[in-house]
Amino acid sequence: MITISGAAGKTGRALVRALVGRGEAVRALVRREAQGEALLALGACEYLVGDQMDPTAWRAALKGANAVYLICPNMHPDETDIVGMALTAAKAAGTSRLVYHSVLHPQVEAMPHHWAKLRAEELIFAGGLPFTILQPCAYMQNLLGYWESITRDGIYPVPYNLAARISLVDLDDVAEVAARALTEEGHCGAIYELAGPRALDQTEVAAELSRALGRTVLARELDREQWRENARKDGLDGYALETLLKMFMYYDRYGLIGNPRVCGWLLGRSPRDLRDYLGSVRTERRE
Questions:
Q1: pLDDT at 186 exceeding the cut of 60
Q2: Contacts for 33 with CB less than 8 Å, ≥ 6 apart
Q3: Each residue of 221-231: pLDDT tens digit?
Q4: Between 278 and which of 31, 37, 189, 212 could a Cys-Cys bridge form, CB atoms 3.0 to 4.6 Å apart?
Q5: Can you give the pLDDT at residue 236?
Q6: Angle (deg, nearest 10), helices 238-254 and 112-125
Q7: 2-138+170-195+258-269: which CATH topology?
Q8: What share of the chain in percent tops pLDDT 70?
Q9: Handedness of CA 108, 114, 119, 121 (dihedral sign)
């Protein structure tokens, strides 16, 4: 049995599909009943409803599990506490493998959620369990959050400098690597950076969107104060809101650039390119 925490998010769902495709039994830890039912439909064997800040939820989720894929809630202010509880429960349950979902360049203190993952990695090093750490870049799938504006208005809105280069990676490639790390030998003690094949600036991303959609799409830099107000109206506040704004400020100056070689080595092929990904999205949306 492989337990996935935070399984209801897009990363968790992609990993459920990847593991089920390999014939693995999957247990999902989710926050709500409806999320669990949706994961059963994807092929998970069972689910548990619980809060990752609750040690009893971790004990139940890891009972009888031989491996765990640890996804903490996105931009959670207490990520290190969550990882500590997961480690304690995993050791008590005799879990033999832990794979942690970190982030590309966790060494950057200017992005608090990256820095928190570095501190969590430090706990894992000292935790006494065989571990693997995955450090993916931002996903190509994040573009779908702007899809209405892109397809309706021909505008790709970006809350940071259009010159920022980001090595977007395909989530399905990340899920395939994660499934391998959970089920194959030879990954314990490894830290894998996972980046896509091209570090594109945002005008280049817009050009790929234009190519895929057969119409002009322009990248437009958003005013961050307006973005802040819109995010607040959508219910985002506190730590998550301020953390995202700090991330955008970092992207302004440095982007987020990784190397695709490790991802390609693990996959046994080149990581998926944005052009191929967008072509598949266009096909799916037509069907």
A1: yes
A2: 49
A3: 999 998 999 89
A4: 212
A5: 86
A6: 100
A7: Rossmann fold (3.40.50)
A8: 98
A9: negative
